[in-house]
Amino acid sequence: VTRDAHSAATRAVREHYSRVLAALAAQFRDVAAAEDALSESLVAALQQWPASGVPDNPAAWLLTVARRRLIDHRRRQSLDDAARERIAQDFDAISEEPEMEDKRLHLLFACAHPAIEEKVRAPLMLQVVLGLEASEIAALFLMPPAAMAQRLVRAKQKIRDAAIPFRIPSPEDYPERLGFVLMAIYALFCVGYNATVVPNGPRDDRDSPSFDALWLGQLVVALSDRDPEALGLLSLMLFVESRRDARRDAQGRYIPLSEQTPSLWDFEAIRRANALLKEAANKVAPGRFQIEAAVQSVHAARAQSGETDWASILTFYDALLASTPTPVVLINRALAISHVQGIDAALEETRSLDDDPRIAGYQPYWAARAHLLAKAGRNDEAERAYARAIALESDPAVREFLQTERSRLSN
Amino acid sequence: MMTAEPVAPPDPREISMKYMLLIYDQESFFDTLPEKQMGELMTAFGSFTEALQKSGAFVAGHRLSPVSTATTVRKGTKDMQVADGPFAETKEQLGGFYMIEAPDLDAALKWAKQCPGAWYGAVEVRPIHPNAAS
Predict the structure, then answer these.
(1) How much is the ipTM here?
(2) CA A60 to chain centre
(3) How far is residue A339's CA from residue A346's CA, in Å, rounded to a whole number?
(4) How far apart are CA B101 and CA A53, in angstroms?
(5) I need a labelling partner for A383 at 20 to 30 A (CA). Which of A25, A71, A246, B13 fits?
(6) CA of A166, closest CA in chain B: separation in Å?
(7) For A97, which of B4, B104, B125 is closest by C-beta distance?
(8) CB under 8 Å to B76, separation ≥6 — which residues?
């Protein structure tokens, strides 16, 4: 058995994992049982394929073996003879191999169902699509492995026991449910965005959760018949991703968007992001992710024009505020206002947030407010806001950036 | 040698789950409700029950008498103790229930959204345990 044969087998297994798991889970309505059966099937594949070669239809091979295992387990587990007999009949009901339907979107809809705890939706999707161990996922989401494992197990039990359907939702539920899928992908992207910056370290982007989120985003675009919001999300992620190399300097120091050198941006990613956004806009069904992508598109245009069109950005945040009035949107809108209408107007905007319990521990609010207060020359207040922002920041590079900003206050 | 050996997927219509729709509300709500609205609410419950029956989803359903009529039995230090009142004092109480049959959670949630109990209280949807005696 050559090394090539083995890596071909490994590659085939990885490539087909999510498709086979989705088909199995949807058929048996049981994610955990499908995972167990598939992992047995994968072990068999990795034993046989390096010698025999990867079969013509690896996915069908994996599915058939896993299905047989799963039915076998079921048969052994069921207590009454009638059920055992029925399972045996199912097992023997051999017909022509049907084309394996792609059930991945169905599986994602089950994972992002509103009946599943919101925090576990993104980790669960990541696990079923990539076949990662709970401990690997826990590391990404900065959670203790045991707690993450328990949450994932509980979510899968709920899918099975409450009979959460593996189905594309009905038209009236579709936009909301797709929204949950997209939000979970975006959450995954943000985890990767915040976690994967290792100054001067080895950087294989293919191993980062941001890359997984981009991959999932592409998958959902394809599977959802190029839904405008799915296009918007993919566009948004590509815009953010295009600045990966520009947001740290050679020493790993954090560089805010306004001070980044546009020539370091990835223009191929920006071109793709703009094309996706245009495609979405042509469908005339605006939504949160399209608007956020539009904001990023304006930022990206600085590479050509040399300046940022803050008036346009403010218009987009006005629209976003109407549909998604979250503190995050209010803060970003206030920053846009500071460029269009001045610092005082911007500070006035953030004042409504001061007593909002949601922002007490929200670093971007305190960083933005500190920035605005510093610009207004209100140094004492800025000092206090910086102190809170610094205390809340977990990324050392961003903390250092904020400390530098604060030290400039006295000058 | 591996031969194709697919199994026909179970028809979703054949899989049937049973769910409880547990209606929680504040009993005081009914004390203050004008008679006319109370009548409308009862009519709404009647129509809901009828819709469940017509579709074949209805298994059982009842309104419960107020918690003031409840008696709770619980094992004491020595023997079974019988006490006046509900199992726990809560802000909202179990006021009624439906047991329905539905192919999956989405179908059950759809019924729960139509249940008049959700207008003034909350409807908790709980699957019946698969190993329950049928």
Answers:
(1) 0.79
(2) 29
(3) 9
(4) 48
(5) A246
(6) 9
(7) B4
(8) none
Nearest to A94 among B5, B109, B130 (CB): B5
The DSSP H or E segment spanning A157 is: helix A145-161
Could you report the per-residue pLDDT of A218-277, keeping only the tens digit for each?
A: 989 988 889 999 999 999 999 999 998 898 888 888 899 999 999 999 999 999 999 999
- Asked whether the beta carbons of A156 and A31 are under 8 A apart, the reply is yes
Contacts of A165 in chain B (CB under 8 A): 12, 103-106
Which pLDDT belongs to residue A207?
Answer: 52
Closest chain B CA to residue A52: B1
Task: Write out the E strands in chain B.
Answer: 17-25, 58-63, 71-75, 80-84, 93-102, 122-127
Contact A113 B10 (CB under 8 A): no
> Residue B15's pLDDT is what?
62
Q: Which residues of A touch B8 (CB under 8 A)?
A: 90, 93, 95
Q: Provide mean pLDDT across the span A191-200.
A: 56
> How far apart are the C-alpha atoms of A258 and A302, rounded to whole Å?
10
Sign of CA dihedral A238, A240, A246, A248: negative
Q: Which of A380, A385, A389, A375 is nearest to A344 (CA)?
A: A375
| Three-state DSSP class for residue B95 | strand
Return d(Cα A349, Cα A366) in angstroms, integer.
14
> Starting at the edge strand that comes first in sequence, how are the strands of the sheet with B17-25 ordered?
B58-63, B93-102, B17-25, B122-127
CB pair distance less than 8 Å for B7 and A164: no
**CA A110 to CA A272: how far, in whole Å?**
30
> What average pLDDT does the structure give for chain A?
86
- Cβ distance A90 to B7 less than 8 Å, yes or no, reads yes
Q: Which two tokens stand for residue A163?
A: 């009979």
Mean pLDDT of chain B: 87
- B-facing residues of A in 88-107 (CB < 8 A) are 90-91, 93-98
Least confident of A73-82, A197-206, A237-246, A297-306: A197-206
Q: How large is the C-alpha radius of gyration of chain B?
A: 20
Give the separation between CA A102 and CA A33, rounded to whole angstroms: 19
Torsion of the alpha carbons at A103, A104, A109 and A111, rounded to the nearest 10: 120
Give contacts of A 28-57 with B, CB under 8 A: 29, 55
Q: How confident is the model at residue A380 (pLDDT cuts 50, 70, 90)?
A: very high
- Cβ-Cβ contacts under 8 Å, A45 against chain B: none
Give CA separation, A127 vs A18, A111, A132, A153, A161, in Å. Answer: 9, 10, 5, 11, 19
CB contact under 8 A, A163 and B17: yes
Confidence band of B108 (pLDDT split at 50, 70, 90): very high
Which of B 94-113 lie inside 8 A of A, CB atoms? 103-106, 109
Q: CB-based contact (8 Å) between A162 and chain B?
A: yes
Spell out which residues of chain B touch residue A64, defining contact as CB-CB under 8 Å: 2, 4-6
